[in-house]
Structure formats: structure tokens, C-alpha cells
Design a protein that fits this description.
By secondary structure, this protein is mostly helical. It has one domain. It is 49% helix and 0% strand. It is built from six helices and no strands. α1 packs parallel to α6. It is globular. The model has no long low-confidence stretch (mean pLDDT 88).
Length: 187
Amino acid sequence: MASPVSHAILAVTIGMAFPRPRPRSRYWLAAALSVLPDIDAIGFFGGIEYGSLLGHRGLTHSLAFAAVMAGVLMTIPAIPSSRWGPRLLTWLYLFLACASHGLLDAMTDGGLGVAFFSPFSNTRYFLPWQPIMVGPINILAAFSPWGRRIALSELKWVIGPCAAIILAVLAIRKRSGYSNDITKEKP
């Protein structure tokens, strides 16, 4: 799996594609939502088999889960407010933030793949291009030599490109007079 940091940074990068208004709270929520699919890792401790519907990279990594979670969040009164933008665009951003988790995991070089179409199919998929080293489920392994190699892999294939995209978008917006609303809130 990719690390929570990579998932969150990709969610923020996706958010840069959406027009204003864009309160910072939307980025925080999308970042949290992008990490949520790994809640299924709890199943390892409960005896749920990896390849089952509720196993790791199963239902919670699916497009259906992302759609439902975005819809559930849209029922929270503060989220679909006018400050967040049009309802459909807000839902789309939240959906893409959550769905991006499976996409990154399908780009890793380990595991059983991602059940994108669960619960309708438990078939697991990888993308044809898998440059990201698979990360450990055990957080302590992140501090090992293997963990450092994984961090460098994610820096190269996820964090670096996302940072470049964010900086480019901010530069374009500044040059065009578009407000830098990541750093300041509108009243």
C-alpha cells in the first residue's frame, strides 16, 4: 500500500483542479477521506482473509465505496454549503479523493491487487505500470531500511510530482490574478 502521506497529498493535488470557492477545510476532509479505505487493515487482526470482500484492498478500496462515502459526507450540513462550491463538484472532489486511494494502491508492486468493482466483483486489479514500492502494514516497519526505500519510492513517484503540480497551479493562478485560496480563507 502507499503511505497515508502519499494518499493525502494526492487528494490535495486533485483538489487543485477544482474551482473556487475552496476552503481549507475541504482539503483536510479530502485528505482524511483518501486514507479511510485502509480501515480494512483492521481485518488482519480480526482474522479476515486478505482476498475476501472485506479483506485489505477489497470493498473499502472500491469505486462504490468512494461514491457512497462522498454521498454520506454530502449529508453533513456544513459540507454542501455554498463555500464549498456547487454540490456536484463537491461530491466529485470527495469521490475522487477517496477513489484515488485504490488507484495509488494499484500502482504498487505488491499485494493481491485492488477490488475496484466490489461488491459486484471481488476480482483484484493492478495497473499495468507499478512503480511504487508496496508499503508495510506494520507502521514500525516504516522506520526500517525497507521503509526508507519505500519513502524514497513515494517521493519520486507520488509526492514529488504532486508537489510540482501544486506549485505550477499556484504559480499559474498567481500570474493570472486568481486568488491563492489555499493559504487564506474568505470571510
